[in-house]
Structures are given as structure tokens and as C-alpha cells.
Amino acid sequence: MDHHDVMKGSLVEKYLLAELSPTEQEDFEAHYFDCEECALDLRLTDEFLQHTRKELRSFPDLRVEKPGRILPFLLRPAWVIPALAAMLLLIVYQNIMVYPGLKHEVASLSQPEVLPSLALVNGNSRGEDIPSFTVGSAKPFLLSVDIPSEEGFSSYICTLYSPSGSLLWRGDVTTVQAQDSVSIRVLPRPEMNGLNLLLVQGISVSGQQKTPVDLVRYRFKLQIQH
Amino acid sequence: MQFDTFDATYVKKLQEGDARTEEHFVAYFSELINLKLRSRLKSHEAIEDVRQETFTRVLAAVRSAGGIRQPERLGAYVNSVCNNVLLEYYRAGGRNDAMDEETEANATSPNPSALNLLLTKDSQRIVHQILQDMQPRDLKLLKGVLLEDKDKEKICKELGVDREYLRVLIHRAKISFRNVYVKRFGSDRPY
Q1: Which of A112, A137, A174, B43 is 20 to 30 A removed from B144 (C-alpha atoms)?
Q2: What pLDDT, in 10s, does the model give residues B128-142?
Q3: How confident is the model at residue A138 (pLDDT cuts 50, 70, 90)?
Q4: Nearest by CB: A62 against B35, B128, B136
Q5: What pLDDT, on the 0 to 100 scale, is given for residue A70?
Q6: Is B190 part of the contact surface with chain A (CB cutoff 8 Å)?
């Protein structure tokens, strides 16, 4: 018996529920005296069960619906006929309305498309440099971001915050990608209406620790047209 | 109590009579021996006898001229000595009925320290919360098996679940218990 057998066979639970044969019990004991992980798991499970026994005494008697009783009730014609009719309506609605729309959306995603783009370059943390951009509510746009490549970073992180400061998106950028402008496809959301922030951080590798360092903060104003 | 891997250094400290190592050794294996013996012996006194005799023999072997052959398998050695002592206890006419539930609950820690009592109270509160979040069916299942000692096959069938469900239920609840405990109190406990 090895650790894998114990985990796979739920032997800790079986042992404490007295579900092992005498031979299996002895084998498992020989194992847990020798395996620190299983010994800890066994002690933890035992402690949990001891407390459960004590606590269950204070729980009121519980009424549980037996599975067999539910089914005949639902099989009465008064329930079955309206349920089947509703399901039929749902199937018709999905086939006529939902699926064709989805097909169209999938097809449009697989086609090349010209997207409006906003270039974020050279940092624009000062108020006067904030670019403004107007987009349609369901139309994606591109953020073309200039990442200041500096020595000592193994990768970069881009984080997009909404005007309220909530996190909208976060993504990693490799040093190779950072050599050119990085394009980020963004689908506008209502909460993006206003002054958004894109924070670019570099991940410096010093020893074992990876510390993000703020490199540039791009602010841009988004107006979403409905 | 933090767990250390058993190795030659650990056994050497036991040989030299290092008090902290000896304390750890007794505490760690006492719990395992209690778990092993409570399904085989009726009384707390019987368990105590076998446990103490096991420790006496193991420590004597560790401190003998030859020591023990595989220090990293100290746990396996303790188990085999415990098996021998138990066998001798049976032969000497010791009773071999399993403990009743009340004795079993007190077997793990007959004289708990104030700190242990506090930790036990905290654990109990966490378990209470976990049980409160459970479905009535799951509670009924646990109650039937753990408190009312009902036939597992029968109660699982009654509640429309299979036997595996019971083990999975306990496993998941135990994981929640560990996660909440570690989150709330850090990893001071041995899990």
C-alpha cells in the first residue's frame, strides 16, 4: 500500500468509518505510522468526526424528502402537459431566435474586421495629455499600447481599471511582445464610460522574488454611444 | 506541535534523551496509537497500558547498543512494536472489545491543556458552521451513521445516495474544516 492507494481509495474515511477488512486495516495502519501526510490527514478527519458527533446532538430532527416521492408527483398529467408545452416553446424560440443570432456573431468574429484604435504612447499621466475616444456600445476597439522596455524586467503586466477604480482586466506581456506596440482588444462596457486607467508594470526578477514595478500610467477618456 | 521528518538526527536526539524530541515523539505517536487501539480495546486504561509499554520498548531499542536499523522508518517500527504488545495483551487475557463512543471521545486527550481546550472550542465552532451550511439530507446521513449507528447501506438507500457519497461528503467537509481553520488561525495546528 502506498500513498497513492490511500488517496485513491479514500482509505482514511473508510478506516474511520470501520469499512476496511482486518487485513486492509492492518495494512493501512502500517502505512500511516510511516507516512506523515496520511497521519495528519487521519488525525484531521478524526478530529472533524469527533466534533461532528458532538455538534449533531444539538441539531434538530430533520425531514428529508425521499427521492421516490418526488417523481410520481411530477408525473401527474396536470404538471407534465404544461411542462412539455413550455419545453417545446423554449426549443422553438432557441431555434428561431437564439441560434441564428449566435451563428451570425460567431461568423462575424471569424472574419477580419477593421477596428477603431486608440494609441497610448509616451505616458500621459499629466491631465492635459489625456486622449478622448468615442465608441459604439457593442463594438470592440483596440488599445495600441507603448510599453517602455527597460533592462532588468523579465515580463510586463497591463492592468485596466474603470473610472470607478474597479479592475476590468489584467494581462501578461512578454519582453518580445513589448518590443513593439501591444494591441489590446477591448469590448466597451457601460462602467467604462469616463476616465479609464491602464497601468503598465514591469516584473523585475531579483533572486526568488518577482516584484512588479510601476512603469507608466495611461489615462484615456471613453465615451460610449448607445 | 510541528511535525519533523523522522531521520537519523531525530533518532540520535532520542538516543541522547533530548527532552523536546522525546516530548514530540510521545505526543505524535500517542495520537496514532490511540487511533489504532480504540477499535480494539475496551478501556482507556488498556490503551494506556499498551501505549506505555510500546514507548518503553521503542525507546529501549533506540537507546540500545545497536539502535534501530532504519531511523527513517521509525513510524513503521513503532507500529510493529505496538502490534506485538497488543498481541501479548490479548494473550494475557486482556479484553478486546472496541471502546464505546463516550470512552472513545475521551481517549484522544484525557488531560487537555488550556490552549488545547481553546483550540478545541474553535474547531467545534467551525464544525458547527460547516454542518449548518449542509443540506438536510447530508445532515441526516451523518446523524444516522455517526450518532445513531444505523446500517450504512440502509440509510444511504433510504436517502437515495450511494455508499461512496458518504465518504465524499466527509472528505469535502473535512477539507472545508481544514481550510477555514488554517484561514482563521494560521497553520499552527499540525494540518
Answers
A1: B43
A2: 888 888 888 888 888
A3: confident
A4: B136
A5: 58
A6: yes
Q: What is the pLDDT of residues A98-122, one digit of tens each?
A: 888 788 777 777 778 888 899 988 7
Angle at A120 between CA A216 and CA A160, to 5 degrees: 65
Is B73 part of the contact surface with chain A (CB cutoff 8 Å)?
yes
B172 in A contact zone (CB under 8 Å)? no
pLDDT in tens, B54-78: 999 999 999 998 888 888 899 999 9
Under a CB-based contact definition with an 8 Å cutoff, are residues B37 and B11 in contact?
no
Distances in Å between the Cα of A99 and the Cα atoms of A94, A95, A104, A110, A140 are 6, 6, 9, 17, 22
Q: What is the pLDDT of residue B1?
A: 40
pTM over 0.90: no
CA dihedral sign, ordered A128, A133, A137, A141: negative
Which residues of chain A are within 8 Å of residue B4 when distances are taken between CB atoms?
A: none
In chain B, which among 81-120 make CB contacts under 8 A with chain A? 83, 101, 105, 108
d(CA A226, CA A88): 35
> What is the location of CATH 1.10.1740.10 in chain B?
8-98
Number of CB pairs < 8 Å for A and B? 112
Question: What is B112-185's CATH number?
Answer: 1.10.10.10
Q: What is the pLDDT of residue B113?
A: 57
Residues of A in contact with B32 (CB under 8 A): 32-33, 39, 42-43
Grid cell locating B3? 511535525
Domain with CATH 1.10.10.10 in chain B: 112-185
Lookup: cell for B114: 488550556
Distance (Å) from the alpha carbon of B65 to chain A's nearest alpha carbon: 24
Residue with cell 518590443: A179
Give domain B8-98's CATH architecture.
Orthogonal Bundle (1.10)
Q: Which residues of B touch A63 (CB under 8 A)?
A: 136
pLDDT tens for each residue of B160-190? 888 888 888 888 888 888 888 777 665 545 4
Which residue in chain A is spatially nearest to B166 when comparing CA positions? Answer: A13
Rounded to two decimals, the ipTM of the complex is 0.83
Retrieve residue A24's grid coordinates. Answer: 486492509
For residue B86, pLDDT over 60 is answered with yes
Q: Is B139 in contact with A59 (Cβ distance < 8 A)?
A: yes
